[in-house]
Write a structure and sequence with these properties.
By secondary structure, the chain is of the alpha/beta class. Helices cover 44% and strands 25% of the residues. The strands form four sheets. It has a five-stranded mixed β-sheet, with helices on both faces. The protein has a three-stranded parallel β-sheet with strand order 10-6-11. A three-stranded antiparallel β-sheet has the order 7-8-9, covered by helices on one side. β1, α2 and β2 form a beta-alpha-beta unit. α5 packs across α7 and α6 packs antiparallel against α7.
């Protein structure tokens, strides 16, 4: 009889403990902060995620790669992941379990960089950019990129000169080198269309880093930097900047189901 009573008491204690554990787990899940995941190797995405998390009072979690951040959301370890719109193509998203939630307020506007004193070149450049925007040429380039299609540059007009564009093809999804070592990306087509509009041929002075481009410009290695440079008030103090010719938005993505 005593053994039976002891067994009943033991079972009761175990049930109470299990119930307490379940409640604790539920409380932990219910009280878990909203987590925004981001791959740390993408600095632009990091700052977009930091801005989004700060504005909404969410917790930011950094990962070593974008794919790790995506997996965290797909496995319900994080609530949102920040991905730039140059990466989040239809083809890219079809291979994930993510859906778009909204865009962040953070964005990058890209511009060309000239040395101080090149106002005439900047003016001609801005006029070309404005005309191409109105003709929706840049929009066609971006649409082709998002849909995974090739873009054909408009037939070149008769050229009256040549410029050297300084670039660093190290920006994934914007300007980079393909498997054959050739420069590619949507910004390459933007450069070519602008040069066509200016009626000039183009050569490239290729740098290995972002910082090296500005040194090369100051040393006269080229006429203009066109290479994923974002427009900032601070940069406008030290250099002559064109009007932005394109921009990157940063989307907030959550798990589909």
């Amino acid at each position: 009889m005593r053994k039976k009573i002891a067994s009943i008491l033991l079972c009761a204690i175990m049930l109470v403990c299990l119930s307490a554990c379940d409640s604790a787990e539920i409380d932990v899940i219910a009280n878990r902060p909203v987590v925004v995941a981001v791959g740390t190797e993408e600095s632009a995405e990091y700052y977009a995620a930091l801005d989004y998390a700060s504005l909404n009072g969410y917790e930011l979690e950094k990962f070593q790669a974008r794919q790790s951040a995506i997996l965290a959301v797909e496995n319900a370890k994080a609530d949102y992941v920040i991905i730039n719109d140059k990466t989040a193509t239809k083809e890219f998203l079809e291979n994930t379990n993510l859906q778009w939630q909204e865009n962040t307020q953070y964005k990058h506007e890209y511009c060309a960089v000239f040395n101080k004193g090149d106002e005439a070149f900047k003016s001609a450049f801005d006029n070309a950019v404005q005309a191409l925007k109105e003709a929706k040429v840049f929009e066609s380039i971006q649409n082709a990129h998002f849909q995974g299609e090739s873009y054909t540059v408009n037939e070149a007009v008769k050229t009256t000169g040549k410029i050297t564009v300084i670039c660093a093809p190290v920006f994934d999804d914007i300007l980079y080198c393909d498997d054959n070592g050739d420069i590619t990306g949507p910004e390459l087509y933007i450069i070519k269309e602008i040069c066509n509009k200016l009626a000039v041929d183009v050569d490239f002075y290729v740098c290995k880093s972002f910082e090296e481009m500005f040194v090369a410009l100051e040393e006269g290695k080229g006429d203009v930097i066109i290479s994923a440079v974002t427009y900032t008030d601070e940069r406008a103090v030290t250099h002559l900047l064109s009007e932005p010719y394109s921009q990157t938005d940063f989307g907030v993505y959550k798990r589909k189901n």
